[in-house]
Amino acid sequence: MAQMLCQQDELRIIVLGSNRSGKTETINTFLGVAAADLVEGATHSVKREGVVEGRKVTLIDTPGWWRFYSITQTTEYIKRELVLSTSLCPPGPYAFLLVVNLDNQFTENEQSSVVEHCKLLGENIWEQTIVLFTKGDLLTDKTIEERIKNQDESLEWLVRMCNYRYQVFDNKTKCDDRSQVKTLLDKLDKLITSDHYRPFEVDHMKRKHTEEAKKADKTQGLIYKQRVMEQRERIKANGEVLLLPEIRMLLVGFVISGKSYAGNIILNGDYFTTGKVTEKAERRQGKVFGRNLTVVDTPGWWKFLPTKYTPGQVKSELERGVELCGKYPHAFVLTLPAEVSIHEEQRHIVQETLEMYLGEDVWRHTIVLFTWGKQLKDTTIEEVIQSEGKPLQWLVQKCGNRYHVFGERAQDSNQVEEFLEKIVEMVAGNCVHCPMMAPQTKIETKVCSTKADEDVAYTDDVIDALYREWLGRDEKMIEEVRKKWDVAMAACTLKTNRSMEKPFDLQGESQSMDTVNQSETFQDNPSHSAVTEDELQTDKNGQSIQRQQSGDEMLASHLKDLLDYEWRRRDFIVNETVREAVKELKLESSSQPDPKDLRESRDKVVSWLLASSGHGSYMSGPQDHMNISRPKLENEMPQDASPDKEGSD
Description:
alpha/beta, Rossmann fold, 3 domains, six-stranded mixed sheet
């Protein structure tokens, strides 16, 4: 087999890695093409071909997954594209390149994420894989071997799994320097011609089922979109669609689901401070497309923790948000990130939260707004809804099949205008009835009934401990940002283009949950059963007390794991946003750095993060990282927020 390969002079390679790991840049470097020819971020696997050192090379660029995310949080359409990547290089790949960015610390969480996603293609993938480290320019005065040794065991484990096959790639190197490409070709040849090499075994049955599921969802997505369009047309034809010179809406959703950023897109300006903690409901007003808009942002609730752990102020601010609308809102806007999965647990949390604190009639006046739509690229939102399955489909159908998706802010975009039209149609479909809140007594009765049905104790101490843990992690992150930002500024002040010796890492160690020491158990895990009062009275040898202490420890560990899931999304977004800010800082100050400007930039970043501890309603992307302003006071109108003035993006 090895001799046949040498005679054919052909290579078929699949490139894998997380988002922003540098997969596409690596392929550009390998093929010797300009970086602008193709940018990273496609939601479909892409076939790239070229001639490298006289040999035909086929490289498959695959969609990336989010760093630190387990495979259960990766959307189905991304997982399908990873499985189907082998169909683009028949009969199968000779090797895989697993791209790891040296600008990030490779943690145990990322190790688990890499393993889970790579195994989608097959258990034997490690036998044909080479680890390719990007951002090689960060290795200033140390070798990659020292970097692997100095980090935790996770990175060394990954290299060992690939039988110590690895290479460093510097994608900033000029195209005429092909030495690193030649070295990689040699390592690929050495892998393929080794005595222990076995061709990668493609699971044809799994690939066939995946292809059929993808095709079915695409077809069903088109049918579903057509049905929704027909529904809208019927409302326009039969309903009394009013002009509605004023529209009032309430933004609701998980923590870090994009509420504040969506509010800025709707109002076409910087009305809400993205990255800032949304501790209280905030109202902003503006005039957009001839309509006076009132948009109220609210604190987010936990995505992975059950509703009983939602802080009390989040519950009360949801209800107060309705009052801030002045009158009852025309629409409740449920924000859901388009690039992460929604499972039955999240569906249940959404249903319980909305019905308990906004009334059971809330669904008639709710529209689902998918944020981070720019991540979908060439995948339609209808395909996402179909592929994600029943939990997400239930939410959209419960909202009367009303949904919309926001991508990037764009001056010529009609996404806001169409969104407002859907709200107007929703009001018409509801016979122009404003949503009625459930009576307070009914809410209180439902809360009491829910508590009575629980088999575990419910204490405010656990909720407070979770909240303090979240704040503690933010405080630690802010301190790390201060230190690293000072390092970046010092490098710029010295007028050097040399990168930082250490990666700009904000991950750090997670703080312990030692403040959680309650006899509370996780509702959905029967193994964490509570110790009853009768058991404590009858167990004379003290074994029940030991069981209770063990249950407390298990609960603390389980809640910490759930909080880690909550934190990973915020940690990743903040990391990437600040990295982009550092990159732009270097670019702007590489010629004539102004110390005053550098200090002001540092203060903006730090003050932004200082305001972002807690339940942040955050959805800032790299394109917005320099758009950092002081936190606005509640009910404060921006300078361009006059109801008589329509803002421009």
